[in-house]
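Section 3.1: Structural characterization of target chains.
Under the original work plan, the team committed to producing a structural model for every single-chain target entering the pipeline before any wet-lab resources were allocated. The record below documents one such target. The sequence was received from the expression subgroup and is listed exactly as submitted; it comprises 497 residues.
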Amino acid sequence: MIANKLALRVSAVLNKQDGTTRNRVTDDMVNDADNWAARAILVYQPDEDLDITLNVNGGQNRADARHFQQRGMLPVAVEFADASGLCAPAYFNTSNCTDAFGYVDTDGDPHSGDYNLNGKEPVDVFGTSGTIGWDLSSVSLTSITAYNDTSRETLEDTDSGPTSLVHGFYGADYQQYSQELRLASRNDGKLSWIVGGYYYRDRVDDDSYFDLLREIRPLFMSPDNPSGLSPENYVMLARYQYRQKVRTGAVFGQFDYSVADALTLHLGLRQTDEQRSIDYSTALDESVLDGIDFAVPTDPRFPYFDSMKASDVSGNIGLDYQIHDEMLAYVKVSKGVKSGGYGGGLAFQVEEIEPFDDEQLIDYEAGLKSELFERRVRLNLAAFYYDYSDLQVFTLVNRGGVPVQALTNASDARVYGMEAELQARPMSGLDVSLGLGVLRSEYRNFIAESGQDYSGNSLPAAPELSFNGAAVYEWPVEGIGSFFVGSDFSYQSKNLS
């Protein structure tokens, strides 16, 4: 701090860890960690009405790409297949389902695998933001400007097996800029409010490839085809490039009105307008495998350009009732929107990259927040119902004999349940917490492209029962500081549907 006007804080973290998984092909240890990050924050306050904050941050990753456990997707007989023709989940990691070359890893060891390629994932990140706040008598004005730049080059053994079945390289540069202005009330009247505007733009430049079935290229080599490429048999190096752009503008307001001494009305509205575009192409070419220096692409497939516009209104309305100083009850209804867009990724058909629409959610919630026994106990309860429309879902479909992951508006859905959270300090130095969640979820009107009906199935990562707790006891030791001992646990049930 300089004369109570200027302050600087600098922090950094370094993370290095040896590999945790043995590659049985090369006898190397993979899945290591090697990354660092740093941040500097400068705060300048020339007078009591003006605050300026500058944040500069960045980092690098030089660790391995993730090496996963192999999972055979091709059933050796029809009785081991699901409706898509691929391996049914019940037979994963068994000899009943293999990769295209008949390999399957059935040893059950999550810390070893057969990888013919040690993947790498260099990532570089830089970001900066500036926040300026002015106190202007009865109102305050805030400006937030931010910029981020990220690049990565990931080379992985996609098939997680000992043969050159599928190698993937993902190269991307991502740039993002945003600007927000907010004007907020500073009085103590019945009405408090915030209004503002927001502008956002980003650009993604992607240059990636999949090297498919390289192991059997010799079967297709000839004087006229020395590389052994055979696209009709998916023996190829398929490179895809695209540029996606997004521009978003929004205006918003949040208003809180004290209807009575114990009753407050909350109202929020946001109008968002968005433009997206994609310029995409796929090519089949012979290139070096390091994924950095490509040859001039040949045989371009369906150059594709498209743009889309969307306009949405979201917001919330709710009531808070202060039962007494230590207990608050509330009800609210909120509407949220998740933007649509384009999937990107490797595509052999235009349908795989055509746009998907916005996902919309209406949230109904009621709850109770309390601090009891002179704030030694905190109890929070909530019940909720989520109504999704046009839920964005990844589905695995079989197109032309190749499994393809597509992102589409596949379904509506509903999620409902309750949560309880208890925090207590029964004695000095001892903190105890317990949490309980009960959840039900289901897809509605979900007919996959394969024709299979998933309506009524539960959503992924939605356990029907979850329970957690922790206890920590801390005591001071004169001349040293303090010591603590603690324990925690968590439980999640399986989805039952």
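The radius of gyration is 28 Å.
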